Amino acid sequence: MASPMAEASLVILENAGKELSFQDLFAQVIAHLELDEAAATKRIAKVYAELTLDKRFISLPGNMWDLRKRHRLDDIIVLSEDLEDEDEFDDFDEEEIEEEMIDLDGFDPEKVKEYEEDVKELSKMAIYDEDED
Q: Which of 9, 20, 67, 77 has the fewest C-beta atoms lying within 10 Å of its C-beta?
């Protein structure tokens, strides 16, 4: 069963007859249900998730929302040739990226080696009590 906010969104979009931005839709839902704006704002993420999961609604570019029944399948499907060219990523050198990540993270292979040696030494000194199992 859909929430009152999802049902209100349905009514508002039907009455509007066109797509609405999420901000406008949410403001109208609050007014329609006569909710306290401060309390309703705390539930904004929940409403967004509900609309996303409810198959009656469709999210459009630009954070616009509409009723799915007003859109043809051809309008909804994004063709692969419309997506950005993936070849632009072929120019990256993986080794160079790994080196940059090491530099950014402050990762030092020598320090890791020292740490591993310290762990081995400490594990040799550890006292193990079989009764603690």
A: 77
Backbone angles phi, psi at 54, to 5 degrees: -80, 120
Of 55, 62, 74, 70, which is closest to residue 25 (Cα–Cα)? 62
Confidence (pTM): 0.55
pLDDT, tens only, 26-79: 999 999 989 888 888 888 888 899 999 999 999 888 889 999 999 876 665 555
- Class for domain 4-80, per CATH? mainly alpha
